């Protein structure tokens, strides 16, 4: 496993912003135009476009232009890569805590075998 994966870095950086997470949540319901993504945020269009640029660069969304409308859609396969990394980390830490728990159990057993004063 790579210790520094630039793709994962970009994904987690994109997900670190609540506005971008809100946009992804909305896009989870289906593709929408940029104006519909911007409406609940109350932000100016250039700010929204910067957020969308970060999401698109991370591979979390794709945009297509049809006439004067830019349509955004989520790319859930990119989030799957993130879920795989998180799953690996969870397995690693669960194995470590299991070994610690087993070690502590042996210490308790050794302590129980010692004569009391």
Protein model, in words:
The protein has 117 residues and is mainly α. 65% of the residues lie in helices and 12% in strands. It has five helices and three strands; from the N terminus they run H-H-E-H-H-E-E-H. It has helices spanning 6-15, 18-27, 34-38, 45-57, 76-113; strands at 32-33, 61-66, 69-74. The chain has a three-stranded antiparallel β-sheet with strand order 1-3-2. Helix 1 (6-15) packs antiparallel against helix 4. The longest helix has 38 residues, at 76-113. The mean pLDDT is 91.
Question: Main traits of this protein?
Answer:
mainly alpha; three-stranded antiparallel beta sheet; HTH_ArsR_DNA-bd_dom
Q: Which regions have little confidence, pLDDT < 50, spanning 5+ residues?
A: none
Strand content: 5-15%
Q: Tell me the strand order in the biggest sheet.
A: 1-3-2
Question: Based on helices, strands and strand pairing, what is the structural class?
Answer: mainly alpha
Q: Quaternary status of these chains?
A: single chain
**Could you estimate the helical fraction of the residues in percent?**
55-70%
Distance between the termini: 51 Å
Radius of gyration, whole Å: 23 Å
What kind of sheet is the major sheet?
3 strands, antiparallel
Number of helices: 5
H/E series: HHEHHEEH
Number of strands: 3
Overall pLDDT level: 91
Shape type: rod-shaped
């Amino acid at each position: 496993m790579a210790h520094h994966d630039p793709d994962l870095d970009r994904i987690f950086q994109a997900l670190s912003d609540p506005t971008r997470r809100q946009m992804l949540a909305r896009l989870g319901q289906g593709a929408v135009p940029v104006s519909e993504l911007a409406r609940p945020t109350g932000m100016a269009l250039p700010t929204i476009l910067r957020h969308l640029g970060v999401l698109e660069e991370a591979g979390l969304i794709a945009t297509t232009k049809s006439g004067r409308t830019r349509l955004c859609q989520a790319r859930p396969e990119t989030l799957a890569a993130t879920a795989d990394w998180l799953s690996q980390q969870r397995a690693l830490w669960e194995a470590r805590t299991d070994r610690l728990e087993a070690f502590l159990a042996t210490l308790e057993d050794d302590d129980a075998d010692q004569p009391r004063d």
